TrEMBL record:
Pathway: Amino-acid biosynthesis; L-leucine biosynthesis; L-leucine from 3-methyl-2-oxobutanoate: step 2/4. Residues 7-456 form the Aconitase/3-isopropylmalate dehydratase large subunit alpha/beta/alpha domain. NCBIfam families: PRK05478.1, PRK12466.1. Its EC number is 4.2.1.33. Heterodimer of LeuC and LeuD. The keyword Iron applies. It catalyses: (2R,3S)-3-isopropylmalate = (2S)-2-isopropylmalate. Its cofactor is [4Fe-4S] cluster. This is 3-isopropylmalate dehydratase. One of its GO terms (molecular function) is metal ion binding. It is an enzyme of class 4 (lyase). Catalyzes the isomerization between 2-isopropylmalate and 3-isopropylmalate, via the formation of 2-isopropylmaleate. Keywords: 4Fe-4S, Amino-acid biosynthesis, Branched-chain amino acid biosynthesis, Iron, Iron-sulfur, Leucine biosynthesis, Lyase, Metal-binding.
């Protein structure tokens, strides 16, 4: 019977069927971060359970850690240091490899793990974090779990779960120049809605997806969780194989050759049937900006805050979003004055993102009064950027240049923009107070963030003269 790529990975990892209403699935890799992972390690230790395969589990510091230069264990969030220390102690006691604050491999978990070759096509990978779906970009079945499931996975290298339904999103046509994977991700959630992926394994397919480089695929898959998907996946191809070759934890020698052979065969069969199918034309996508407090509340950059009745402008959520964001229907997004610009997060903080933003900032200055921050997604990205002189471009434009981490994507570290500050941000969530109490987040690509920082107002990156 023909199968999807998801079916193939699921079936090859199924240890038992119908085990208590679900399948028992072998878990190849477990990733932990200090916000949720330390909790799981502590609770496991308290129950006297050991980590079954410590060499398959990895922990990293990313969420709460300070990203200001010269950082230590101290964080602006008073309780942050406890999370950091608990994770450090828990990882040490359990014998896991930890990428600590000063480790050259440290970074946002979804950025550093592909970088290190910790995520491989055909493997199962879990992490107590909702953006674990990013890693499906390499052809892995990777999904976010809760802390209790993380404990189970650590103790048994398995998880019991119901087989999720499948959905294929086929994106054909070519993205226009200046339009990125982030714009595509925002356009998809804008078109189909935040519930459109509900519980499904979403396979992204089509010529536009195949044309994306691996970093852009990570950006696209990253936002699948914003449509409530179980996870996302893209069939691995030569781009993925080239990306993984020589990475620290990728196989080498004969094991590499065998792995590559199996990865080349890993794709949905031509006649595989999906539970749901959606199609989208990449040529329709323009640079996108969110106006509200849900990632589906987006418009093209030359659009306006929708009138009531369109794009959630009329129902209670829409009205609340308008009030929270301090906007009225009909206001054009372009030219809306901003207070701050943020480039970072597991969506858009890889070297390609930084290069494209720096190309726009080169020789230009951030507008007066704008707080502009760039946070590389990993220490490796930071070092690469510095080797290329990108840090100097960011700094001389007036951006802060930070240590790697989640930073102001999420208020976990305690650092924030001012209440009601309007922030153009390369992150993935624009929920109320996501970037700190009262902050107003507009999601966009790193290019749009850079162009807007220069203009001091939301600006189209294609029009930077
Ligand atoms: C803290 C963590 C559990 C959370 C997540 O699951 O995604 C965070 O990373 C986020 O982006 O909101
Ligand atoms: S960068 Fe933001 S979205 Fe990504 S894992 Fe960190 S907090 Fe979550």
């Amino acid at each position: 019977m023909s199968r999807t790529i998801f079916d193939k990975i699921w079936d090859s990892h199924r240890i038992a069927s119908n085990a208590g209403g679900g399948d028992l699935i072998l878990i190849d890799r477990i990733l932990l971060h200090e916000r949720t992972g330390g909790v799981a390690l502590k609770s496991l230790a308290e129950r006297g359970r050991r980590v079954l395969a410590p060499d398959q589990a990895f922990a990293v510091m990313d969420h709460i850690v300070d990203t200001r230069p010269g950082r230590t264990d101290r964080t602006l969030m008073p309780t942050g240091t406890d999370f950091i220390r608990a994770t450090r102690e828990g990882a040490r006691a359990a014998g896991l490899r930890l990428f600590d604050l000063d480790d050259p491999a440290q970074g946002i978990v979804h950025v550093m793990s592909p970088e290190l070759g910790l995520v491989l096509p055909g493997a199962t990978l879990v992490c107590p974090d909702s953006h674990t779906c990013s890693q499906g970009a390499l052809g892995a079945l990777a999904w976010g779990i809760g802390s209790t499931e993380a404990e189970h996975a650590l103790a048994t290298s398995t998880l019991r779960l119901r087989r999720p339904p499948t959905m294929r999103v086929t994106v054909d046509g070519a993205l226009a120049p200046g339009v990125t994977a982030k714009d595509l991700a925002l356009a998809l959630v804008g078109r189909f809605g935040v519930g459109s992926g509900k519980g499904h394994v979403v396979e992204y397919a089509g010529s536009a997806v195949r044309a994306l480089d691996v970093e852009s695929r990570l950006t696209l898959c990253n936002m699948a969780t914003e449509s409530a998907a179980f996870t996302a996946i893209i069939a691995p191809d030569e781009a993925v194989i080239d990306y993984l070759k020589g990475r620290r934890f990728a196989p080498s020698g004969e094991a590499w050759d065998r792995a590559v052979e199996s990865w080349r065969a890993l794709a949905s069969d031509d006649d595989a049937v999906f539970d749901r199918e959606l199609a989208f034309d990449a040529r329709e996508v323009a640079p996108m900006v969110s106006w509200g407090t849900s990632p589906q509340q987006v418009v093209p950059i030359d659009g306006a805050v929708p009138e009531p009745g369109v794009g959630q402008g009329s129902d209670e959520n829409g009205q609340r979003a308008l009030a929270y964001m301090g906007l009225t229907p009909g206001t054009p997004l372009a030219d809306l004055p901003i207070d701050a610009a943020f480039i970072g997060s597991c969506t858009n903080s890889r070297i390609g993102d930084l290069r494209r933003a720096a190309a726009l900032l080169d020789g230009r200055k951030v507008a007066a009064g704008i707080k502009a921050i760039c946070v590389p997604g990993s220490t490796q990205v930071k070092q690469q950027a510095e080797a290329e002189g990108l840090d100097k471009i960011f700094l001389s434009a007036g951006f802060e240049w930070r240590e790697s981490g989640c930073s102001m994507c999420f208020y976990a570290g305690g650092e924030s923009f001012a209440p009601q500050a309007r922030v153009i941000s390369s992150t993935n969530r624009n929920f109320e107070s996501r970037q700190g109490p009262g902050t107003r987040t507009h999601l966009a690509s790193p290019e749009t963030v850079a162009a807007s920082a220069i203009a001091g107002r939301i600006a189209d990156p294609r029009k930077v003269a």
